[in-house]
Amino acid sequence: MRPSASLPRLAAWGAVVGACAYLLVELVPDVRSRPLFEDEAVSGLISARPFGEMIATTMWDRGGAPLHFVFVHLAFVFDSSPEALRWISVVFAVAAVLLCYDLGRRLDGRVAGVASAIVAAASGMLAVYGSFGRMYALFAFAAALAVDLFVRCVQRPTTGTVAAASASAWLLPAVHPYGGIVVAVEAAVALFLWRGRPLRPAWPAVVAVLAMIPFAVADLRLADRFELSSEQQGRLATWTEARHQLEDAVRGFGGGTGWTFVAFLALAAWGITILLRRRPELVAWGLIAFAGPPLLSTFVRTDRAPDLSPRHLIFALPFFAAFVGVAVARIPARPLPLVGLAVVAALSTQGINDPRSITYTAALGEPDAVAAPAAWLQGEVEDNDVLYPYASVYLAALPEAGDARGLPGTLAPSWVSPTTSARSSTRFPPTGRTWSSTCAWTSPATSTHRRSWWSATRSRTPTTTGTGGSWWPTTSATPPPRRRC
User: Fold this and answer.
1) Distance CA 360, CA 438 (A)
2) What is the span of the domain harbouring residue 459?
3) Do both 349 and 395 map to the same domain?
């Protein structure tokens, strides 16, 4: 594709560095200042376990996608802290911006590349999940790498480019279960493009598909975890919920709300129109993969209701950034459109909510709230203890809390939760103590603030003492009235 507008290499890289710096200014303060969130405790506590146990847990109990846990496990070798967990997301968020530049550059020159980098760096998605201790920034990075190398392979189809594109495609299901859907769409598009050509140069793609089989098996177990069955009466999502997930994700990609959102949406639509004539396979892959998971969720039957958060669609951010970038590259007066895009991006709202700002859970993850109970727990926790369920106070108690095994509510021992299963008691024998944490409302007669109850038990007998912030220790066998959080 012939670039529509040129930009000196030095100026282009200067603009990309500026975009990365803008993102870092947003993310770096959040590493320490944002409250710890329960989802982050999942990554931290599982990754702190021995490597073999960590892989078994992620592949057997959590539906596959172990790559983020592997990176966290390696980072914990040097620093087992919540900050180290979040820094991994920061690194991959910045790397995703760099890859978005390369993707836009391949599609329509350096102007498109810089515009794509600006969109990614200013997106609400990376502003939130670029410092969130889960796999979402890594998912955006893996998607950007896969799309970039796919375009490279289409432009220069050789065994080497096929191997690179196939290897990057393997990363997607290794990071997130939705990655399997993205790869399936990519495979269909690739087969269409490769039709009539000899299959021998494409052998790396076959190897990659075989290497993805363990993730497919793990995804089937994930379906069992969410009780998916044709006999269930409920659905995973309604059409309205699916539409809201798609809409919220697009708002998080760029513009947020109001006129800035309309501007980003118009640019993305224009970019799609341009690429439909030049790279229709990329448009088809991006749109089908983006809409696929929410739409499929409306057909899945289950009595459970997993969170249909826009964060699960963060893989589509590189596509959106590229669509906008190609459109901006078509606007005359070359430097001005980039400046205008940067101004609009800076004026845009975030578009999505930060889960760490949720009122009823944020207070429980504040440094002042977790400091005392985490310090107490660090001196008490032992090997083979069980932490149930995942909670911010356990994450704050690393690295000592890594000696215990964390369990979600669905894998709790029977004396902690009625949702026990045979495999939980087999894989996690209760040889130590069980540390229990659950959200609760305090009595109106004593306080109107949210509190949480935590206790340590050995064979059903409570043994804890002490106090700590908004976490209340208890020596009672009966917790306060519980409310799900």
Assistant:
1) 12
2) 359-473
3) no
Look at phi and psi of residue 227 and say left if phi exceeds 0, alpha if psi is from -120 to 50, else beta: left
* Same domain membership, residue 416 and residue 270: no
Amino acid 335: pLDDT? 83
Of the three residues 353, 373, 406, the one that is the final residue of a domain is 353
Among residues 104, 121, 117, the alpha carbon closest in space to that of 327 is found at 104
Q: Which has the closest alpha carbon to 333: 138, 119, 139, 111? A: 111
Q: 204 and 92 share a domain?
A: yes
- The answer to the question of residue 134 being in a domain is yes
The structure tokens 């994450």 sit at 395
Number of domain units in the chain: 2
pLDDT digits (tens, 9 = 90+) for 408-419: 765 554 444 433
- Whether 312 and 449 map to the same domain: the answer is no
- 3-state helix, strand, coil split of the chain in percent (to 5) is 65, 5, 30
Same domain, 24 and 87: yes
**What's the pLDDT at 304?**
62
* 241 and 383 together in one domain: no
Q: What is the pTM of this model?
A: 0.86
SS3 annotation, the chain: CCCCCCCCHHHHHHHHHHHHHHHHHHHHHHHHHCCCCHHHHHHHHHHCCCHHHHHHHHHHCCCCCCHHHHHHHHHHCCCCCHHHHHHHHHHHHHHHHHHHHHHHHHHHHHHHHHHHHHHHHHCHHHHHHCCCCCCHHHHHHHHHHHHHHHHHHHHCCCHHHHHHHHHHHHHHHHHCCCHHHHHHHHHHHHHHHHCCCCCHHHHHHHHHHHHCHHHHHHHHHHHHHCCCCCCCCCECCCHHHHHHHHHHHHHHHCCCCHHHHHHHHHHHHHHHHHHHHHCHHHHHHHHHHHHHHHHHHCCCECCCCCCCCHHHHHHHHHHHHHHHHHHHHCCCCCHHHHHHHHHHHHHCCCCCCCHHHCHHHHHHHCHHHHHHHHHHHHHHCCCCCEEECCCHHHHHCCCHHHHCEECCHHHCCCCCCCCCCHHHHHHCCCCCCEEEEEEEECCCCCCCCEEEEEEEEECCEECCCCCECCEEECCCCCCCCECCC
Q: Is residue 88 part of a domain?
A: yes
In this structure, the answer to whether residues 16 and 163 fall within a common structural domain is yes
- Alpha helix (H) ranges present in 302-391? 317-329, 335-347, 359-365, 367-380
* Domain's final residue, options 318, 353, 388: 353
Q: Is residue 247 part of a domain?
A: yes
Q: Are residues 267 and 397 both part of a single domain?
A: no
Omega before residue 399 within 30° of 0, cis: yes
Quick check: is 96 in a domain?
yes
Residues of the chain with pLDDT below 70 are: 1-5, 222-234, 301-307, 358-364, 409-485
